Amino acid sequence: NRPRRGGDWVVHGWRSSSLSHAARPTPATGMLRSSPLPLVALALIVATALGAHHFPEYHNSYHHHHQHEHMHVESDAFNDAQRVIEAFRGASRATVVLRPFNLSSVRLAAASRFDQMERFNTDFLLSLEDDRLACLYAAAANLSTTCVPYGHPRYYGHYLGHWLSATAFSVASAAAPSGAAVRNKSAAIVATLAEAQAAWSALGGRHVGYLFPYSLDAFDNLFGYAKPGQYLNCAPVCVPFYVMHKVMAGMLDQYQHAGNRQALRVLLGMADWVVREVGALLARPGFGEAAWQQVLNTEWGGMNEVLYNLYAVTGNASHLRAGEWFNHFLWTAPLAIGVDDLDGSHGNAGGNHANTHIPEIIGSARGYELTSNRTQHDIARNFFDILNGSHTWSTGGSNDHEHWHAPHQLGDDLDGQTEESCTTYNVLKVARHLLQWTGDAHLGDFYERALLNGLVGNQNQHLNGDGGSFIYMLPLGGGGLRKPWSSAVNGNFPCCWGTLSETFAKLGDSVFFRAADDSALYVSLFVASSVVWGEGEGEGACEVTQATAFPLASDEDGSTTSLRVACDAGTAAASGWSLRIRVPAWATAGPNVILVDGKPVPGTLTPGFATVPAPGGGAWGTAAAPTTVTVSFPMSLRFEQLDDNRTEWAGVGAIMYGPLLLAGLTDDDLLPGLNASAARGELSQWIVRNDSSSSGGGGGSTPTRRLGFTARNPLRGTCGQVPSAPGAVTLMPLMDVQDEAYTAYWHSCAPQVPATSPGSGGGGGATAVPTAVPTAVAADWTARHRARLATNGPLLNIRSGDKEQEGASVISTHPVLAAAAGETAAGAVAALARDAELEKVRAERA
């Protein structure tokens, strides 16, 4: 709940009987007083949480790194286990330096770019029809057999969970229009889902609390409950926990951001179902930890995160324990000791599927915050450092064809299928957690870069009528690229439609932060917005307002942003705190200046969070006489090399302006004019700024200014390459590109040193770190049983929006999807027979 300034966190639904006294939240932090889990190998965590023996191979691989004793703890004795582990290692608290503001405390400035994007998104969310949104869930529970779902036949229920989260954020956002309409519409959907859950529960047994768009067959197939000779159909939902996580997270967001208590009741029923089902599976004779790790090889979203978050609300230890069950240590164990296993070197020869794993990391971060488990901290921290240091594009995003590959060899991945939108959305969540732990401004730099380059430009308000368009991939490799827009309403509703719906519903959530002790208000992003601090807390309030056109103004008139501070006169809120303003790492052109009521803040402003104390006698201004803080961080041009340590990729890179990647509007990716002097940072000699205006570019009729540049591209240089159009090249921020053909990475003639990150493990001649898990890990996802693939064989990711995989076909037994696909009973029988023959052939080959 809303934290009081310098006071307790108020937790709704707290049940003191759920935990021992030692594990109750502590005033002022909301963290656990104890440290339930020590800094040991994750095998110990799993063994403790599940009441099982260590996974032998895992234990042996860590024997050289962590010394730990064998423990056996019954799964229903969590508090006893906690005390045992505390005896092993002294208790400590998770370190949290910054706290976010509630969305309801932050307002985006009217008619600003972010405000227009958020309003457009809200209109899109409202435009979707209730019966089509809930169709699969209602039909599966026999509440409806006539509805037509969105996105069929390749949509299987995940978007609804994202929609619930997005509408909850819209309700909470003070800038969102039609707040009552969004609240009423989302409440109606929640009520329909509650009815569906009740219909399942009426069947009794394993169905109590169940809510899913398909029968239990989806989970039975995953759990291996199928009997010999019985061929269960995993399609079209071969990733059931992935789908369930989206709905559970949506219900929790509806409760926490929109105040919907029915959503919490539905979520509690779903969580009880997960606890019972997974608990029974883990207690199944002969199942064991190795088998559970195989279950976790199938994409399961952020089940750990949502269960941890629910535990923070309820204090119910079973929710914490269930969150710990979703611990894919076969993948995260190397990360815990800083080993890069993103490339698939630990079993997945084709590289790891990025968005399978990033949500796991988010869950690890949340687990650390609630339990002080240092291993979970290290997993999240090391993952981010490895990803950002070895696998990341200049946009701040990562991956190609949804997968990570070899570190420091991004040249092999430079094509038109780069940077899945979902992955950028989720890695920003990781960065946000780390920023709150550390207060490190470099994490704010990353957040700014990834948000502006990788997400802000992924909404198109001018294509496909109502609802506009989204993109699944952000192409970065080659010349003459185009963003692959697809209708937001009439498409397949792939995963990225969900994460983008959430993105544009909470654009104000990481602009401001507050120190954990309320000693400072942090300005992390330069976004036209305002935040109310202390409202309703009994001590008066302050409003801090940003007026900015960033990134337009930064080197034109010298102003990055201007802050207006107005506090209730004569109250405690007006004093006792400072502003902390992020000085970006890109601010190297100088001079960097911060003025308070016209007077400069003394000292050199270097990258980090600069402290700006209240003026005069230590009190901030009032509404009648506000304090004005003017910030100037000039931006400059630079050439940023592709992260590839091989000579043949030297000189390939992107042109950056501050945090922005500049795209060239050309079919070529050759820039022979980029000579050695330009590579040394003298790009201004041949790139000049010339901003432009467009009508309604931000979603309205008012002309919108956009950054623009012109680059001279003469026939000179030493590489001997000649572009087909050697004249001037127009450059613009990638986030502003809509329908234009563009180039993001350039082959230049500039001599460069191959890129590398020292100590990254495998790049630039660094010594490779031995694998921490010697056993092979199965593929993230494989097609099984009746999921028949027309293209790409077992490499198909069934929820992919990749246009190269559009030819895939599946057979569904869902009543609505089957009817839509025209499947007949005879066809289904024939398909089963064919499957039986295939299984027979497979068995003979084996």
How does this model look, in words?
The chain has 846 residues and is α+β, with helices and mostly antiparallel strands. The chain contains 23 helices and 25 strands. The strands form 5 sheets. Strands 16, 17, 18, 19, 20, 23, 24 and 25 form an 8-stranded mixed β-sheet that branches. A hairpin with an 8-residue loop joins strand 8 and strand 9 (542-547). Helix 16 packs parallel to helix 18 and helix 18 (421-438) packs across helix 20. The termini are far apart.
Helix-strand blueprint:
Layout: H1 42-50, H2 56-62, H3 78-88, E1 98-100, E2 106-108, H4 113-127, H5 130-133, H6 135-140, H7 158-172, H8 179-201, H9 217-223, H10 240-258, H11 261-282, H12 288-295, H13 303-314, H14 317-325, H15 329-336, H16 354-371, H17 374-390, H18 421-438, H19 441-454, E3 459-460, E4 469-470, E5 486-487, H20 495-503, E6 512-515, E7 520-523, E8 529-533, E9 542-547, E10 561-567, E11 578-583, E12 593-596, E13 599-600, E14 608-612, E15 627-632, E16 637-641, E17 652-657, E18 660-664, E19 670-671, H21 676-679, E20 687-689, E21 692-695, E22 703-706, E23 709-711, E24 729-733, E25 746-748, H22 815-821, H23 825-845
Helix pairs in contact: 1-14, 7-8, 7-10, 7-20, 8-11, 10-11, 10-13, 11-14, 13-14, 13-16, 15-17, 16-17, 16-18, 18-19, 18-20
